[in-house]
């Protein structure tokens, strides 16, 4: 089972307008609402690619109930941790040639809320499972919150994946997560260095390995991705060309595509290709990657060598 955790999920209200004018009436050409939050994105793509997954998420209020129903429509079981204060946030994504985002705040979480999640993980995780921790966590829970969850997973023998920024990520490294996925900007932030070249990316990815990560997958956006592996190898592949329609969830899709392939094949390079293909499938689509779109892109990548 692939378990994901989302501390601050959302309903994403996506609006398309032909042109946007400030201080004026703007009419939508198209609009839709989809579930959001990095862990939930990972779970939806995992399900699309044929894996069983459950998504832990903190939900609150009327919008939290809507989120649970929407996630169910994608075949994912959302294990809700109810929060008494506030409401699950609504994020507005305005697309008018460029993309403008207004993200809601979401409910405040307490240590008691976190303890509910910990109790669920204690009874759920086994050595056959993956625990995927994605996105930010509330500052009220401290910078060690992911580390605390990985400690539970390690006791159960589950493999851990971390896709987070700054200390939230680095605090977990001594616990040897199976995979971490910083992007180039996050890598620069961790080491307070300007990182531009692939050689720099590889150098600092290996630094993260020295700090404890087993495998480091660095997304480079339109340039592709670099993978530094536990067995001492380094792999790179460029991203396929295409029209980017949706930037939200591409990194989450890369994580899902990589894990699906690695779990089946234990082939690092092929899993890197699958991860890039899944991320690109999301970027080139209106929402998250489907198996059909990922396979189409993967086939083109393999044909191009």
Please outline the major beta sheet.
Answer: 9 strands, mixed
Element-by-element helix/strand order: EEEHEHEEEHEHEHEHHEEEHHH
Number of helical runs? 10
* Quaternary structure state of the chains depicted: single chain
Extract low-pLDDT stretches: none
**Strand segment tally:** 13
Strand ordering within the main sheet = 5-4-1-8-9-10-11-12-13
Rg result: 19 Å
Shape: globular
Average pLDDT taken over every residue = 94
Structural class estimated from helices and strands: alpha/beta
Q: How much of the polypeptide forms β-strand, as a percent range?
A: 15-25%
* Secondary structure: helix percent: 40-55%
For the record, give the distance between the C-alpha atoms at the N and C termini, rounded to a whole number. Answer: 32 Å
Describe the structure.
With 305 residues, the chain is α/β, with parallel strands linked by helices. Helix content is 40%, strand content 23%. A nine-stranded mixed β-sheet has the order 5-4-1-8-9-10-11-12-13, sandwiched between helices. The chain has a four-stranded mixed β-sheet with strand order 3-2-6-7. α8 packs antiparallel against α9 and α9 crosses α10 (291-304). The two termini are 32 Å apart.
Helices, strands, pairings?
Blueprint: E1 2-6, E2 10-16, E3 30-36, H1 38-48, E4 53-59, H2 61-73, E5 77-82, E6 89-96, E7 98-102, H3 111-124, E8 130-134, H4 145-156, E9 159-163, H5 166-170, E10 179-180, H6 184-191, H7 198-210, E11 215-219, E12 225-228, E13 234-237, H8 250-265, H9 268-283, H10 291-304
Parallel strand pairs: 1-4, 1-8, 2-6, 4-5, 8-9, 9-10, 10-11
Antiparallel strand pairs: 2-3, 6-7, 11-12, 12-13
């Amino acid at each position: 089972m692939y378990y994901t955790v989302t501390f601050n999920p959302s309903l994403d209200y996506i609006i398309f307008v032909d042109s946007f004018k400030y201080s004026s009436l703007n009419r939508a050409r198209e609009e839709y609402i989809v579930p959001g939050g990095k862990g939930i994105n990972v779970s939806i793509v995992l399900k699309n690619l044929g894996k069983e997954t459950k998504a832990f998420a903190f939900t609150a209020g009327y919008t939290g109930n809507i989120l649970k129903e929407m996630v169910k429509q994608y075949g994912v079981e959302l294990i809700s941790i109810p929060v008494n204060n506030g409401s699950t946030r609504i994020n507005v994504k305005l697309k008018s040639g460029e993309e403008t985002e207004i993200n809601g705040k979401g409910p405040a979480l307490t240590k008691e809320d976190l303890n509910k999640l910990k109790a669920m993980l204690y009874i759920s995780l086994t050595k056959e499972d993956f625990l995927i921790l994605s996105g930010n966590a509330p500052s009220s829970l401290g910078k060690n919150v992911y580390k605390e969850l990985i400690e539970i997973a390690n006791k159960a023998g589950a493999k851990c994946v971390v896709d987070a920024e700054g200390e939230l990520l680095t605090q977990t490294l001594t616990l040897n997560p199976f995979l971490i996925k910083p992007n180039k900007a996050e890598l620069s932030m961790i080491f307070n260095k300007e990182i531009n070249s692939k050689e720099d990316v590889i150098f600092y990815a290996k630094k993260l390995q020295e700090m404890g990560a087993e495998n480091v997958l660095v997304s480079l956006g339109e340039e592709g991705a670099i993978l530094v592996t536990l067995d001492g190898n380094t792999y790179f592949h460029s991203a396929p060309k295409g029209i980017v329609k949706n930037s939200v969830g591409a990194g989450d899709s890369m994580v899902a595509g990589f894990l699906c392939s690695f779990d089946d094949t234990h082939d690092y390079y092929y899993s890197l290709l699958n991860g890039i293909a899944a991320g690109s499938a999301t970027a080139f689509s209106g929402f998250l990657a489907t198996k059909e779109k990922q396979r189409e892109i993967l086939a083109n990548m393999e044909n191009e060598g």
